[in-house]
Amino acid sequence: MEFKSLKNIETSFKQIRLFGIVLICVCALIVGFSIWKSYQFAELQRQKIYVLDGGKSLMLALSQDLSQNRPVEAREHVKRFHELFFTLSPDKNAIESNIRRALFLVDKSAFAYYKDLSEKGYFNRIISGNIVQNIQIDSVLCNFENYPYQVQTFARQLIIRESSITERSLITRCKLRNSVRSDNNPHGFIMENFEVIENKDLRAAER
To answer: What does DSSP assign to residue 44?
Structure first.
């Protein structure tokens, strides 16, 4: 009888040990699952932004992945540079202000182009002839398959004189690299190897 009792006690210890191991494994699985769900929930919450409306109510806004918006920002960056660099008025201060703001968006290649135009008297003729130059961007083509991104811009220039309006085609190309965002460069890009590959008259009309 004593031997049988000892055997039963040993069996009971084995069962208790087995149950203990199973319990520990189940608890570990529950803890792991809870941590994973908590992390998943935190990630979802990070995509939500609550905006206080006039100090009275909360409005829910959804955030987006930054990379989803980069193609749009890239095209807007290039477009902004062209608008600043090629929009001219017969005012020296206005021209210098636009050029200075444009040069924050590009490397020294655009400055070299600007110096070349200055040495040829292009801006002096704009001022002395009371000429207004506007630009209309037709399209900005960006290749995001390879880095740095290849960009080509198609636009039209309107040279507005007192007696006539001349329309010119403008095609430029450059490379686009990621850069640090700042007040002067809000999209965080820098244009490299900027060059004008076509700039010719399309038509002229009297006013």
So the answer is: H
- Give the pLDDT means over successive 10-residue stretches in the chain (207 positions): 55 77 88 85 64 51 57 93 94 94 95 94 92 94 91 94 91 94 91 93 77
Q: For residues 97 and 164, state if they share a domain.
A: yes
Tell me 106's DSSP state: B
Domain that holds residue 39: 2-62
Return all residues near 139 (Cβ < 8 A) that are at least 6 apart.
153, 154
87 phi and psi, to 5 degrees? -95, 110
Structure token digits, residue 88: 């001219």
Q: How far apart are CA 190 and CA 74, in angstroms?
A: 9
With 0-12 CB in 10 A as exposed, 13-18 as middle and 19+ as buried, what is 44?
Answer: exposed
Task: Give me the pLDDT at residue 2, please.
Answer: 47
How confident is the model at residue 23, as a pLDDT? 86
- Domain edge (last residue) among 41, 62, 83: 62
Residue finishing a domain among 27, 44, 62: 62
Strand partners, 132: 160
Match 């590959």 to its residue by tokens: 197
Q: What is the pLDDT of residue 75?
A: 93
Whose CA is closest to 76, among 184, 170, 186, 198?
186
Q: How many CB atoms lie within 10 A of CB 166?
A: 16
